[in-house]
């Protein structure tokens, strides 16, 4: 630990006293450096500016300027300097006047080196404490300077959200060096629409740089205009507080400034922002109303699309002319997913989005309805016993929609989601049909010798209607049930004719034909020759 060394001046008109004090103490060990010794008070006063002592040890009774005058001068001009008075018994009442001027201590003559050392040790301890406090205060001030931008931002966020409304607002603004000098105020909220071309180059973890860039561009414009302050909220949106003396002038300048911000962002950052603009208020304590309406206006980007400057006053009329939301199209979508064409499904999605846009429902209500649509789609999949996830990613569709900022984006996402759904349904149906057809083939190959085998028997085995079975069997094999059964029987007959000595009527019986004559007709129709001729040829 570094020891503090302090500077001390000794003043006494008696040489032996002055020199005795100077030479009898181990000053370095006490933590002091003697920077001057004087025989009168005038020389002390003349040396103060140059020597800047921490402590003055002075006799009361000195020529030209006495110790009391030195004390008074130090008290008025160097209040941080510690003063120790040397005084005799007969001068004690005189020294008491000095005590009123915050003299640190006094010592009676004659004194010993031990007495003086004790007093100096106490003085050093007090100086150390004061220095520590000064250092701590300096550190605190430095920390305050470093954290001031965050303190300002937190204060401003509390101001616009209504968490802070107080009578001495001006004092707090002055303390934080925030200029909001005006008679009228307005809040706007700026949000990034998407990252445009930069989305390919900036990972999600660095996207805050883009939000900061928007705040920085907006801040530069308002610094130049000298009529607003810019900061970010906890969601990385840029908040602007504008102020002015004239309501109409403020209203006109708002339009120009936000158009400039839009242009600058497009030009320098290559993406777009939308801006929600609140209404004008006449008090800082009501500024949270303007912020709330600016946030509501920004939410209507969901209906109006991106790259917009949306004034709350402009959308009030639109909301008044809205029509009720109709869930008819939601139900129709669920039905169409099972049997409708892709074109029909896309048309229904467009009708749903159109209904949303006309309804002007609050954005959170829209998200709830969209989630209900997703749930109805999942119900369809559950009904069809389709368990596979539609997307290879781990994202949840019910929460994924919150990343969509406009209904146009929702429309594209929902069409794509329905496309994945219908593909999954079609794939599952195809797999089901294929499995049923394979089961039918297996059943026929195992029962072809049964003279009573029929399509009804196969359908009963598969638990399918005859019409549906006919469709899937023909699609899978390219043959009707009868033609397939006949082919299997004829192939088996060929094998028996070639490898056995069985009679024709015996072969007919083994492959499911009771009438040998009918077997001969079927065989000849299939091969172009009778069973007897076929056997001779092979």
From TrEMBL:
PROSITE patterns attached to this UniProt entry: GGDEF (PS50887), HTH_ARAC_FAMILY_2 (PS01124), RESPONSE_REGULATORY (PS50110)
Query: What range(s) does the HTH araC/xylS-type domain occupy?
Result: 438-537
Q: Where in the cell is it found?
A: Cytoplasm
**Ranges for domain GGDEF:** 183-314
Write out the entry's keywords from A to Z: Coiled coil, Cytoplasm, DNA-binding, Phosphoprotein, Transcription, Transcription regulation, Two-component regulatory system
Residues modified as 4-aspartylphosphate are: 59
- Looking at the record, the residues that make up the Response regulatory domain are 7-124
Q: Which residues form a coiled coil?
A: 113-147
Broad class of the protein's primary localization: cytoplasm
Q: Which PANTHER family match?
A: HISTIDINE KINASE-RELATED, TRANSCRIPTIONAL REGULATORY PROTEIN HPTR
Give the protein name, as stated in the record: Response regulator
Instruction: Identify the species of origin.
Output: Paenibacillus phytorum
């Amino acid at each position: 630990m570094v020891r503090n060394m302090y500077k001390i001046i000794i003043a006494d008109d008696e040489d032996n006293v002055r020199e005795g004090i100077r030479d009898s103490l181990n000053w370095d060990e006490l933590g002091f450096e003697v920077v001057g010794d004087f025989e009168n008070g005038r020389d002390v006063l003349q040396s103060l500016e140059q020597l800047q002592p921490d402590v003055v040890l002075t006799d009361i009774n000195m020529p030209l300027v006495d110790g009391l005058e030195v004390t008074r001068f130090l008290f008025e001009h160097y209040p941080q300097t510690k003063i120790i008075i040397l005084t005799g018994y007969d001068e004690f009442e005189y020294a008491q006047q000095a005590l009123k001027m915050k003299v640190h201590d006094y010592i009676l003559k004659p004194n010993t080196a031990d007495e003086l050392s004790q007093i100096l040790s106490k003085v050093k301890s007090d100086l150390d404490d004061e220095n520590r406090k000064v250092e701590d205060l300096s550190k605190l001030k430095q920390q305050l300077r470093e954290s001031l931008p965050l303190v300002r931002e937190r204060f401003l966020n509390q101001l616009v959200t209504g968490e802070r409304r107080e009578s001495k607002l001006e004092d707090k603004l002055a303390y934080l060096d925030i200029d909001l000098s005006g008679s009228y105020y307005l809040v706007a909220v700026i949000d990034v629409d998407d990252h445009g071309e930069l989305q390919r180059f900036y990972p999600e973890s660095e996207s805050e740089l883009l939000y900061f860039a928007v705040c920085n561009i907006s801040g530069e414009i308002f610094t130049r205009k000298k009529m607003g302050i810019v900061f970010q909220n906890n969601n990385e949106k840029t908040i602007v507080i504008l102020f002015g003396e004239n309501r109409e002038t403020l209203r006109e300048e708002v339009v120009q400034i936000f158009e400039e911000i839009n242009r600058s962002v497009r030009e320098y950052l290559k993406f777009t922002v939308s801006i929600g603009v609140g209404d004008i208020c006449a008090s800082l304590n009501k500024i949270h109303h303007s912020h709330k309406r600016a946030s509501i206006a920004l939410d209507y980007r969901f209906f109006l699309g991106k790259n917009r400057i949306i004034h709350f006053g402009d959308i009030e009329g639109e909301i008044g002319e809205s029509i009720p939301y109709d869930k008819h199209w939601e139900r129709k979508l669920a039905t169409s997913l099972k049997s409708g064409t892709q074109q029909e499904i896309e048309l229904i999605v467009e009708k749903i989005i159109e209904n949303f846009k006309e309804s002007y429902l609050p954005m959170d209500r829209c998200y709830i309805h969209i989630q209900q649509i997703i749930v109805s789609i999942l119900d369809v999949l559950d009904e069809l016993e389709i368990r596979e996830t539609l997307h290879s990613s781990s994202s949840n569709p019910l929460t994924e929609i919150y990343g969509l900022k406009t209904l146009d984006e929702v429309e594209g996402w929902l069409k794509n989601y329905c496309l994945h759904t219908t593909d999954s349904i079609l794939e599952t149906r195809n797999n089901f049909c294929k499995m049923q057809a394979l089961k039918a083939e297996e059943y026929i190959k195992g029962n072809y010798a049964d003279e009573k085998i029929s399509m009804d028997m196969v359908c009963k085995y598969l638990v399918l209607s005859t019409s549906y079975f006919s469709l899937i069997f023909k699609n899978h094999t390219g043959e009707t049930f009868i033609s397939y059964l006949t082919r299997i029987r004829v192939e088996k007959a060929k094998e028996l004719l070639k490898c056995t000595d069985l009679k024709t009527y015996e072969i007919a019986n083994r492959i499911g034909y009771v009438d040998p004559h009918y077997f001969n007709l079927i065989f000849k129709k299939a091969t172009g020759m009778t069973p007897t001729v076929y056997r001779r040829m092979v």
